[in-house]
Amino acid sequence: MSKKQVLLEEYTMGNLELRNRIVMAPMTRSRADNPDCAPTDLIAKYYAQRASAGLIITEGSQISPMAVGYINTPGIYSKAQVEGWTKVTRAVHERGGKIFLQLWHVGRMSHPDFHNGELPLSASALNPNSQSFTPEGFKDTVAPKAMTLDEIKETITDYGRAAKNAMAAGMDGVEIHASNGYLLHQFFSPTSNIRTDAYGGSIENRARILFEVIREVTRHVPENQTGVRLNPSLHGVFGMTLNEETIPTFDYIVRRLNHYDLAYLHLSEPFTDVANIPGAEPHIAERYRPLYQGTLMINSNFDQDKGNRVIEAGLADLIAYGKLFIANPDLVERFTLNVPLAEWDEATFYTPGPKGYTDYPVCNEKGSL
Question: Is the pTM higher than 0.90?
């Protein structure tokens, strides 16, 4: 690839200057293996190694004890967690990087084992018929508790408190995780939301919670330092299925997001082949680039060439890379030098310790390891 790469161009996002258009996508790594579920020195090292990305988006960080649904994931609701994330932001900023924290609530994808036997919360009491990764291993999910109006209000407040904590930890911004079958996504879909109150029924009602969360989060974080993540064509994952209302729901959400001066909208291309699924949209960037007027970030199995081509075609402004960043902490440098990429070790994605986490080699300025 001899011509100039648009992936390597600087980009102005809100009030931040990104040194390139390569984003490290949020990825659960399950290394917060301590009673506080707080980021550690090892986690700080992991993110610092990848600070040459234009932007890092952290792994999902639970906004409250009720938001947790996986072992050893870091939170953002306690003093110890804020102190842990402060180590991370300091390490990233020392290397000139930018970092957003992803605000996470898994909703019904949790398990009573995380909540002293109490049911997890969701829009409606519908079992996703999936599995939750508990301290005792994978267990079948259960039917959650349908949230009361007070519990919805409390959860929205939790998002705001978590956003405030993220900024106290030195984050450059936050991403609201409204994607991948987790809590906010569960409200959007009529297959997981059968409420009959102000948060159910119509598209506007099912989307209501997202805009209330945005309003609460932006009390503590400027709009142009707040991102939103969506996955419109998620199908067959975490109990989420597509129907004729799915894409119209996301069309409504994306159009309404134009009313905000957000840092970005982060969209995922389909995780699975949805070409023959009724109600699906196989080409997310192509559909939503014309609908969204702000900075658009896209992800899902991009390589170097495809990332450059998507930006050149005007379909996105930023490209988020996941697994490539696991195995290549120096992904930006490897793209710059056009050198081969390392392979990731999937067996170590969620295991404790540095193996498969901070021990991947980096190349020098000549492209040699």
Answer: yes
Task: Delineate the domains of the chain, giving CATH numbers in brackets.
Answer: 6-348 (3.20.20.70)
pLDDT of residue 367: 57
**Which of 89, 288, 259 lies closest to 174, judged by CA?**
89
Inter-axis angle of helices 149-168 and 203-217, to 10 degrees? 40
Q: How far is the CA of 199 from the CAs of 166, 211, 336, in angstroms? A: 27, 11, 47
Contact 145, 125 (CB under 8 A): yes
Give me 160's structure tokens.
Answer: 């705001």
Catalytic residue, from 182, 264, 321, 360: name it: 182
What radius of gyration do the chain's Cα atoms show? 19
**CA 43 – CA 353 distance, rounded (Å):** 10
**pLDDT of 300:** 87
- Please name which of 97, 126, 92, 88 lies closest in space to residue 109, comparing C-alpha atoms: 126
Q: Which helix (H) or strand (E) segment is 79 a member of?
A: helix 79-94
Phi then psi dihedrals of residue 99, to 5 deg: -145, 130
Tell me which amino acid residue 18 is.
Answer: L
Quick check: is 288 catalytic? no
Q: β-strand 145-146 against 173-177: which pairing, if any?
A: unpaired
Residues lower than pLDDT 50 in the chain: 1
